[in-house]
Each structure stands twice: as structure tokens, then as C-alpha cells.
Amino acid sequence: MIQAIETVCRQAHIHEEIVVVDDSSADRTVDVVKDIQNSMDNLSLIVRTRNPGLSPSLYEGIQNAKAPLVQCIDCDFSHPPEKIPVFYQHLHNQGYDMVIGSRYIDGGEVRNWSFYRELLSFGAALLGRVLIPNVKDSGSGFFAVNTRILDGVTLTPRGFRMGFEILGKSNWTRVKEISIVFKDRESGESKLRWRIVLQYLIQWVSILEYNLIKKECNSIARAWKHFLRN
Ligand SMILES: Nc1nc2c(ncn2[C@@H]2O[C@H](COP(=O)(O)OP(=O)(O)O)[C@@H](O)[C@H]2O)c(=O)[nH]1
Ligand SMILES: [Mg+2]
Fold first, then answer.
1. Whose CA is nearest to atom 19 of ligand 1?
2. If 97 and its partner were Cys, which of 106, 141, 148, 172 is the partner (CB 3.0–4.6 Å)?
3. How many domains does the chain have?
4. pLDDT per position as a tens digit, 94-132
């Protein structure tokens, strides 16, 4: 994945830093990354030892990235790295705050998931639309963000849906979905567990509370305004 991102970015004339966020995994990720670091000066590694999980890892990567435009991508090739320049173009040239790789707009698709996994994901996407109706696939892990919208915002990352946390609690005004084809991993196992589903429900309530009870932001109202206007 490091090599694939590097190739895509070179071709698109994007000067990127790649940040690998590892949760002390036992698959030699750290050794492999350190080895590649000998021949790449734009590769960083964060090794975490506490509070493991995808969203906390993404948040730490976002906070430690040197550039203001940050792309999040899974490492198992479920997300197509060749789409990165499209995200970049929307953030950099068109001034969007956030760009989401969507499985649930025209041209978007999921390949090789079981019917049950598709149902779970689509159900979660529908639930997400109750709070953030202007985004069809708020749970996508393939998204890019201009970190200016996170200034002064405290997020509580949990579960798999980091993009939903950002949409529900930050100061975005312009969000764009672009279609992606999500392919299930070819080897290894998904880390999705029932605990992750429960964490999503807790996150959903927390976003509602953050907006309507604590009144820390008005992302839900803004999302509904955007949805009703279009
Ligand atoms: N750092 C870190 N990454 C994780 C964790 N769980 C999942 N990931 C990464 O998140 C991405 C999606 O996870 P995966 O197990 O493939 O879930 P699925 O694609 O939704 O079935 C992959 O790139 C994983 O390596 C975690 O606990 N910590
Ligand atoms: Mg995966």
C-alpha cells in the first residue's frame, strides 16, 4: 500500500507524507515500515500501545500529519489508492472541507461482501442519514479532510466510523461524495465485531447529544439544511 500510494501521488504531482498508524500488531508491520523508511524520507510510523481501534488510530494519524489536507485509507486494498488524486483535487483545487469515498451513490459499489455484511453496512448508513442526511455514506473509511474544520473541536473516536464523527461534530460547510468501488480484502480477516456495531450506536447518541443537548456545534442542523436545499 505504501508503494501504491507513492506511485499514485508521484504521477499526480502530489507531494505527500504517508503516516502508518499501527496498534502494536503482531504481523511485523513495524519492521516492514522501518525497512521501507530507509529508502523513503516521507514515511512516518506511529506505534500505539493504548486504546486500540480504527477510529482512535485514524484520529491520531490526522492529528500528527504535517499537512492540513489528510487522506484516510485502509491498508488492505479495500479502498482504491488510484482515487486519491480525485479527493485531493476536490480539497486542494475546489476548496471542499471534506471528501467522502461513497459506496452508496451512482457509480459506487461493494464487491465480495456477504449479504449479511452488506445489510449491516447499509443499515448503518441509513441510520447515519437520520443525523447527517446530506451524506449517503457517512461511515466510509475512505475519506479526505481539510483539518482546518477540526480546529477547536474535540472528537471522541470510537468504532470504525471516523468520518461520521467528523461530520457530526466539526465545522464543515462544503462536503463532497465521490463514488468508489469497495473490494473486500483478499486475505486475512475483517476486524469488525459486534462491539464495533455497539460502539457505532454509542457514537450516534453521542453526536446527537453533542449537537442538541450540549449545543457544542450545529452539524446536524447544517446537514439537514444542505439536504433540504438540494
Ligand atoms: N490501527 C488500527 N487499524 C485497524 C484496527 N482495526 C482495523 N484497522 C484497519 O482498518 C481497516 C479496516 O479494517 P478491516 O478489518 O479490514 O474491516 P472491514 O474492511 O470493515 O472488514 C484495515 O486497514 C485495518 O488494518 C485497529 O484496531 N487499529
Ligand atoms: Mg477491510
1. 190
2. 172
3. 1
4. 999 999 999 999 999 999 999 999 999 999 999 999 999
Angle, alpha carbons 183-187-188 (nearest 5°): 110
Residue 155 Cα to ligand 1 middle (Å): 19
Helix (H, G, I), strand (E, B) or coil at 50: coil
155-166 pLDDT per residue, tens: 999 999 999 999
Which ligand sits closest to the CA of 158?
1
Q: Supply the residue whose CA is at minimum distance from atom 27 of ligand 1.
A: 53
165 found inside a domain: yes
Query: What is the Å distance from ligand 2's center to 162 Cα?
Result: 15
d(CA 94, CA 98): 11
Range of the domain at 132: 67-229
Q: Where are the alpha helices (DSSP H) in the chain?
A: 2-11, 29-37, 54-64, 84-88, 115-131, 162-169, 194-208, 219-229
Please check whether residue 225 lies inside any domain of the structure.
Answer: yes
